[in-house]
From TrEMBL:
Keyword annotations of the record: Isomerase, tRNA processing
Name by which UniProt lists this protein: TRUD domain-containing protein
Family: Belongs to the pseudouridine synthase TruD family.
Domain of life: Eukaryota
Regions of compositional bias (Polar residues) in chain numbering: 631-646
Organism: Anisodus tanguticus
TRUD domain mapped to chain residues: 305-559
Biased composition (Basic and acidic residues): 170-181, 595-608
Amino acid sequence: MKTMDESDVGISCYISNLPGFRGILKQRYSDFIVNEVDLDENVVHLTSLEAPKEVCSEAKEVNVSDQLNTSYVTEIESFRSLAGNSDADKLKALIDKHNSGVDVSDEPIVLSPSSDKSHRTAIHNFFKERLKFLVTDTIDGVEDQSKCVRVRLNKGGNNGRGKYSRKRKDRDDKRYDSRGSDSWPEHLGKFLRFNLFKENKDTQEALNVIAKMLGVQPRSFGFAGTKDKRAVTTQRVTVFKQQASKLAALNRRLIGIKVGDFCHVKEGLLLGQLYGNRFTITLRGVSAESEDIIKASAVALGEHGFMNYFGLQRFGSSSVPTHLIGAALLRGEWKAAVSLILDPREGDKNAISTVREYYKESGDIDGTLRQLPRYLVAEKAILQCLKKHPGNYLQALKAIPRTLRMMYVHSYQSYLWNHAASMRVQKHGFDQVVLGDLVYSKEQHKEKETFVAECETVNDNNMDDYSNLDETSETDLPEEKNIPVKALNEEDLKSGTYTIDDVLLPLPGSRVIYPSNDIGEVYRDLAQKDGISLTETAHKIKEFSITNMTGAYRRVFQKPKDFEWELLSYTDGTIPLAETDFDVIAKSVKKSKVREEDSANGSEELRADSSAISVGDDMLPGKGCEEKSNSEAGMQTEKSQSGGNAESQMALKLSFTLPASCYATMAVRELLKTSTSVAFHKSLND
């Protein structure tokens, strides 16, 4: 099977008739900058790494380091009378070892089995009241019906009574989560909100790193949407019951990640709680028959917009598009769907291809699992289930994380939408509305537009890396009831109330209507060719049925908001042409350092709040206070002349805001009139 082209998923039309031109997308990570836009349409920026002064009950919280040299003789003797000599001796040994400086954080002690719940409760209460630097939970004993109290060092700095810290039978040696602090001040919101800045990392990967450093579960974090991996991005994140000072201290250790702009709020963020994203995109190596073509194309994009297609990222990056798997699920072909996920495919790296071939030829599940990379989440889930339930392909598919397995069906809906959008333009153009077009009604209802939380994730290779898609599909099809949508009639056309910018097309579902013209038939005909009915289900599994989904609406044409552009010339391809949030902070710290050196007669010590930026290897790759500014590096506007002997090249820098459902790569496609695939743009660098 050949690698997927844009035309394979219905991406074929442009709005502008202007010729395209050459340009390289994402030559550097800083060529693709994304800043989240919140529901109030404020652009999210990282502006400070400093933790604000917090009136937290730090005195109430237990600082383990303050108790290193305390013997607790009285407490141990009291515990001896409660639990007996054997358990008291175990406790004394743990405390003595801890006081000697040995790291005992991963060396819990297990007390003697007890079937008396009141006795176990008394032990738990003893540690909560007398030895707060230790935490306890209950685990199964060796004998039936018996329970044991487990004791270990409190890593989280609280009393360990969180959701993930008590009575977790199957915790083994997992970290305690600090979500349940009883000493949290009443005047502070329970969620710490901060801005996450990252480079070349997807959102979940960055949060996993932070979670590990804090000793909390990744699920403690909330965010509105995932952001691109191959980019520099800033977004809002919330975490439950954490102090800003703890997160700010991580900046010294984080590589490619920074956190800042802390404040406490009452509610955590949920997926979909954003307006959209602000993009700053730099196309390098730009060339055309004339500079006027580039300028005219940029102006046209700002005035007329682009076809609002679902981008290639929606369909995966391998030769087996996700919509084909979705179609198999909708038909109820469970074994075929499993084969599409597991079988060898073009575009895989050699190591992955070898593993897939091995399983297809041998059927050895254990051997395949040992070789399979962790990021192939769907494949691992399927094989682990088939090992327990051989031949049960439906159950194996349900073992895939829900948001990931639903992505397949949503991908097929997007596939139908793209084809319908192309047919709408091919048959009726993009100049005016026609009879039967769908629009949000302006007569009886206030227009209500539902934006869909998407992520633009372009992988570095042609493998399907699903790790950063696991949180996106949940918000793809919002369950909106009574959306005011209507098909245009003759009176609407005569009134001139509606324009081409109002035209919508549905994502198939049980609560949407279809255009009452020939475009409505496009959905049914294309689905029928794939053996799928949009009105009847082929099986009883609701989650894999379009008739069980509500559906949604999406604008066919999208104009970028607050659109800006400029032509630049440069001679050094390694120099950034756009400032990131971190660059702005670093520049500010550098100025502050100069002022402090002047006032301190040559002192080179930085302020405490800026040390996280400038300490050696803690800086982001390729960033730092000593990096030359763009102007110093030779970046010039189109009116300037480049100096030196190096050959001057042209770049086009674009800045614009899009709703969360829109793909910036489709805006770039409208300019270049070329494929937006990673492979194509990599070839331009060769």
